[in-house]
Write a structure and sequence with these properties.
The complex is a heterodimer of chains A (171) and B (396). Chain A is built from 4 helices and 8 strands. Helix content of chain A is 19%, strand content 32%. In chain A, a hairpin with a 3-residue loop joins strand 2 and strand 3. In chain A, the strands form 2 sheets. A 5-stranded mixed β-barrel of chain A has the order 4-5-6-8-7. In chain A, strands 2-3 form a two-stranded antiparallel sheet. Chain A has 2 domains: 32 residues, no CATH class; 119 residues, OB fold (Dihydrolipoamide Acetyltransferase, E2P) (Beta Barrel), CATH 2.40.50.870. With 171 residues, chain A is α+β, with helices and mostly antiparallel strands. By secondary structure, chain B is of the alpha+beta class. Chain B folds into 2 domains: 182 residues, no CATH class; 193 residues, no CATH class. In chain B, the strands form 2 sheets. In chain B, strands 1, 3, 4, 5, 6, 7, 8, 9, 11 and 12 form a 10-stranded mixed sheet that branches. In chain B, strands 2-10 form a two-stranded antiparallel ribbon. In chain B, helix 1 crosses helix 11, helix 2 packs antiparallel against helix 9 and helix 11 runs antiparallel to helix 13. Chain B is elongated, with a radius of gyration of 31 Å. The mean pLDDT of chain B is 88. The chains are: A alpha+beta (171), B alpha+beta (396). Chains A and B meet through strand 5 and strand 8 of A and helix 8 and helix 9 of B.
Chain lengths: 171, 396
């Protein structure tokens, strides 16, 4: 987390805001539950030749939680789908689609009972895998979650009238 | 005389009322079974019959129409895209495989689908496998020299009765260039079973008008990317373009399932009401019959039948009625689902299994017998409490 705080001095303020917003949600993660990874953390962890940082590798094999948009690139029972930072099915003005660095391949989600909404953020929990792997049906991937459970995410924090969004918003 | 024979006698005495009770239980159970089998079957068929390709690319318009038409051969085709769009996609470095598809008219209601042999090729990532029941695939003929060879889906071949070597056409316009059957596919349990396939050059040369078109048209391109994670970017590029749109087939199906889900919820409420009505009917019927038989019960008690035996006879009556009703309902429900499946297969090509066995049947059967027997509990209690002296008093 401290690494992200230091970013605000070198990146444009909007990205800093986004980063802080993501971070603040990440920090709120409850102690006894699976650690939450953000897409920013995933993207930053990537090194040359399909390698990732040791810190990211330390999550491998453990239960994690990632919040993102579901892109149903697999069968309609959602036994496989892509989890992405941006929706692929929103409008076409505001977000640029992301590539492999910010896409999590979600396998083995069973009995996804929630009605699928392309514009909602879902919370996906499962066993995290990292590093290059080639799946017979879905090809090469970098980040994977297996035995996934899907829920609606709580959503972004709502700042009530008079509440200051974040102390770092004015650099 | 055992308890069972006494119970059966009772049932025989009020035959008409009891038959009506059984019929109403059977109708209720049949309705539940048929609607559950049909809604689940339709959904599973869509899941099973969907394409292995991640993206369907077509002309601007409704993505639902594009996917329903290209993958399930429902609805009418979206407008044409041009052949260069396919060339661009096939040449894109992110794309592993692009398969062009053009939707044509139909022969006896079986849709013409023009494509390349790649459509039928087996790949490691494909779930669907195409195998020939007879003959071979159509030749990959070059543009301008069509062979007019056709490959029939299993259902199309069975229904039309066409065999290898047969030549066919529909409509005067095509009389000059009839298609020749060169192959018949094995069933795939998808909409491809109801299609008639041939090559794109044959499609482009089917009539004078098509022949004069300089830049050849297509309906859609099926796309498989090398990396799944490139799909969102490609999807966006194709949708931002003024000429094309791209759709994830599963997104469309999930949207349809969401709508179906709403209908299912309403149906569940209706079925719950039906269940309540049926149980109340059983209850009223049992209650009435106990009331009518109170003299008889009093006689049995006077002759030495214990209260518990009376209780058991009435409960047994209710159990027998609900068991017969539930069994008849299961049969009727499957029969209705079978007819529904046939109708769906004929109308929209959705081939579903109307006899899918699962938890549904035992749960419904057990539930009906249990609830039906419980409905007999109150009348049974009433019978249990029948006072001998009161009910054996002279009637007038």
């Amino acid at each position: 987390m401290p690494r992200c705080h230091s970013r605000r001095h070198v990146v444009p303020s909007r990205i800093a805001l986004l980063g802080v917003a993501l971070l603040s949600v990440a920090v709120v993660a409850r102690g006894d539950e699976a650690p939450r990874l953000t897409f920013a953390q995933l993207a930053e962890s990537i090194r040359a030749n399909f390698d990732v940082t040791q810190q990211m590798k330390s999550y491998a094999g453990k239960e994690v939680e990632i919040h993102g948009f579901i892109i149903p690139a697999g069968p309609p029972d959602l036994s496989f789908f892509l989890l992405s930072r941006v929706s692929a099915l929103g409008n076409y003005c505001c977000e640029v689609p992301v590539g492999q660095d910010e896409t999590v391949y979600v396998f083995g989600a069973k009995g996804v009972k929630l009605p699928f909404d392309p514009l909602r953020v879902y919370r996906v929990r499962g066993v995290f895998e990292v590093g290059k792997q080639v799946d017979r049906a879905y090809g090469v991937s970098m980040f994977r979650i297996r035995d996934a459970r899907v829920e609606h995410a709580v959503g972004a924090k709502i700042f009530k009238v008079g509440e200051t969004p974040a102390p770092v918003s004015k650099p | 005389m055992t308890l069972g024979t006494v119970a059966l006698r009772h049932l025989q005495e009020r035959l008409v009322a009891n038959v009506l009770t059984v019929v109403s239980i059977a109708l209720g159970v049949g309705l539940v079974i048929a609607s559950a089998l049909l809604t689940r079957g339709v959904k599973e068929t869509f899941v099973e019959g969907t394409t292995d390709y991640g993206l369907v690319v077509g002309a601007k318009g409704s993505p639902t129409q594009l996917v329903l038409n290209v993958v399930f051969r429902m609805d009418s085709p979206t407008p044409n895209i041009l052949l260069p769009t396919y060339a661009e996609l096939a040449g894109d470095e992110r794309v592993e495989l692009a398969v062009p598809v053009a939707m044509g008219d139909a022969f006896q209601g079986f849709r013409y689908v023009a494509t390349t042999p790649a459509y039928f090729a087996a790949f490691r990532w494909r779930r669907t496998t195409f195998t020939m029941a007879a003959g071979r695939l159509f030749r990959d003929d070059p543009a301008g020299s069509p062979t007019y060879e056709a490959v029939l889906g299993a259902e199309a071949a069975r229904h039309t009765g066409l065999r290898l070597g047969d030549r066919f056409y529909e409509g005067e316009e095509m009389a000059e260039y009839p298609l020749t059957v060169v192959g018949i596919l094995r069933p795939t349990r998808s909409a491809d079973d109801r299609a008639i396939f041939f090559s794109l050059p044959s499609y482009w040369e089917m009539n004078e008008l098509a022949r004069q078109v300089q830049i050849k048209p297509l309906t859609a391109v099926l796309v498989r990317t090398k990396r799944m994670s490139d799909l969102p970017a490609l999807h966006r590029e194709l949708n931002v373009s003024a000429k094309t749109q791209a759709a994830f087939p599963s997104t469309i199906l999930l949207a349809i399932f969401n709508l179906l889900g709403l209908a299912e919820e309403i149906l569940t409420v209706i079925l719950a009401i039906v269940a309540i009505v049926v149980v109340s009917y059983l209850f009223v019927s049992m209650y009435r019959s106990t009331f009518e038989r109170r003299r008889e019960i009093a006689t049995m008690r006077a002759l030495g039948a214990p209260r518990a035996a009376i209780l058991r006879i009435v409960l047994l009556d209710a159990a027998v009625l609900s068991t017969i009703g539930a069994a008849a309902g299961l049969l009727a429900g499957h029969a209705v689902a079978y007819v529904g499946a046939q109708l769906l297969a004929a109308r929209v090509g959705v081939v579903m299994d109307p006899f899918a066995l699962g938890l549904l049947q035992p749960v419904v059967f057990g539930g009906v017998v249990l609830v039906g027997t419980l409905a007999g509990l109150l009348p049974a209690m009433r019978a249990y409490r029948v006072e001998v002296a009161e009910n054996l008093a002279p009637l007038s």
